[in-house]
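Prompt: For my understanding, could you write out one protein's sequence and backbone structure tokens?
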Amino acid sequence: MEQPPVEPPAEEAAPEEEPINEPLEIPAQTPYFHALGRDRYARQRQIRAIEDHTGRRLISFVSTPFAGIIRDNVPVFADLLEDVDEGDDLDLLLNTPGGDIDAAEKLVIMCRAHCKGFRVIVAESAKSAGTMMACAADSVVMGFASELGPIDPQIYVPDSKGEMISRPAHSFLQGLEDIKRASREEGGLAEAYFPLLDRLDPALLDYCRHAIDRAEEFARKWLERYQCADDHESARRIATELGDVARFHSHGAAIDADDAEKMGLTVEKLEPKDELWQAIWRLYTEYHLSLQQGGLRYIFEGRQASIVW
């Protein structure tokens, strides 16, 4: 018996796609102006993302290895704090070779006046006066690439060609002690030491002593207030250890997160794959490239203010 033809199954109609109603992202700036500052706006978006993650305000002070902290940084740095309230917890992303001790302390005082809690984030390096600033924080955020450094002060003096070079303050005082020791052992002052003594004038030696005392006093005072919480002995020991030239034979010696923690500093160590560290490191690499490619010396930045030199 002949079977009736089988009707093919009806094709199901494809479901209609939901319309995408997400609004277009239109920056507040005019198109060309926004294009000119696209790197800055990208960094500021990253700053806001980090702030959302930590629940803290974030500002950045990043410079090249050849641009130290100076007094002229102070009014520029103040712009970053305009958007910080006294009840906010503040993070400072700091990258600096060091610089003027008094200017560095001024920046710390300004930060402390604008916030409740204060952390210093070291993505790559905060050396010398930058390390002193880290001593003034409640804690220091560090990762695998982070380093602090010795706080022994450097003195600028002319070399044989009249060009200014930096020398450790301790070296001038040690040089005098070496000459005195040699004179005692040799029963008198050899003529070979006369040119050296010409350079070691009393005013320079006095300046070196005061510079050494000032650096250790900076670190000790702020450690006592915060990280060491009135533990005067621990604050004094850490400050002395940071300035110990017998331990650190180079002013550029690296103090990593583990070493800093062993000294007694309060370190928040982030692992390489930590989400926050990844965000911090990406932001820092943006700064690093902007400084190099733009021929800049400093970048001061927050979620609103952005100033480059």
About this structure: The first strand starts at residue 57 and ends at 63. The mean pLDDT is 87. The radius of gyration is 28 Å. The first helix runs from residue 31 to 36.
